[in-house]
Design brief:
about 250 residues, alpha/beta, Cobalt-precorrin-4 Transmethylase, domain 1, 2 domains, 5-stranded parallel beta sheet, 8 helices, elongated, binds S-adenosyl-L-homocysteine
Length: about 250
């Protein structure tokens, strides 16, 4: 027994934006061969149906129950050290506001073998599911993905909103439902045209998916009226007004 190698390891799997069909083949394979899956609120939980593995839910609910990151790291390391094949299943891509980097560091520091399987990020898939291409020839030569978790002017914010307003790229805002009024007001103050198209996609890929389209000046008001809640992505830029036209819609 003592000589048997410890097969314990951690795989950080990006599960895509929610629909079980949008996890990668490699991600699904890792989940299916796991002894333990440590899941998140936004992970595609549908892929776990019928699996016999142990499931540890450390999902974080906005302003609700949370498991501190240190505790999640400890859980991953402890199961792998005990010889388990551990999958850390996250929503979207694990390295896009997913704290995957911290989990990777924790595993490496503990001497646990760790692999990363990228996922389809909601930053791109969310707009796509609303028919919004994040780049489009003639409309946008780039896009910038930022967190709206803390609003402009907050001492914890490290973003230069004036530079973002001037960037000429589409802005893709994650975690920005509560902060959208402050963000849109700041962008307008910093010179971004109030008439710039904007769209918010909530619950992308889920049966509850909703899309609200407006402009920079009114999008925050429109999503409040529509009672849009997290998770939602807001796109600001010409692509948010993208209309493929009747010749390409197939209707
Ligand atoms: N790692 C994830 C992002 C985690 S941060 C990814 O790559 O997609 C959480 C934020 O992601 C949410 O507040 C929301 O802005 C966005 N998000 C995640 N899933 C979403 C979904 N299905 N629909 C809309 N937004 C989503």
């Amino acid at each position: 027994m003592e000589n048997r190698p410890n097969r314990g390891r951690v795989v950080l799997v990006g599960g895509g934006p929610g629909d079980p069909g949008l996890i990668t083949v490699a991600g699904l394979e890792a989940v299916r061969s796991a002894d333990v899956v440590v899941t998140d609120r936004l992970a595609p939980l549908g892929v776990l149906h019928g699996l016999g593995c142990e499931i540890v839910d450390v999902g974080k609910i906005p302003r609700g129950r949370t498991t501190p990151q240190e505790e999640i790291n400890r859980i991953l390391v402890a199961h792998a050290a005990a010889g388990k094949r551990v999958v850390r299943l996250k929503g979207g891509d694990t390295f896009v506001f997913g704290r995957g980097g911290e989990e990777l560091e924790a595993c490496v520091a503990a001497g646990i073998p760790v692999d990363v399987i990228p996922g389809v990020t909601s930053a791109i898939a969310g707009p796509a599911l609303a028919g919004i291409p994040v780049t489009h020839r003639g409309l946008s030569q780039g896009f910038t993905v930022v967190s709206g978790h803390v609003p402009p002017g907050d001492p914890r914010s490290t973003l230069d909103w004036a530079a973002l307003a001037r960037s000429g790229t589409d802005l893709v805002l994650l975690m920005a439902v509560a902060t959208l009024p402050a963000i849109t007001a700041t962008l307008i103050t910093e010179g971004l045209d109030a008439a710039t198209p904007a769209a918010t996609v909530a619950d992308a890929t889920l049966p509850t998916q909703r899309v609200v389209r407006a402009d920079l000046a009114t999008i925050a008001e429109r999503i409040a009226e529509a009672c849009i809640a997290s998770p939602a992505i807001t796109v600001i830029g010409k692509v948010a007004g993208f209309d493929p036209g009747s010749e390409t819609t197939g209707v």
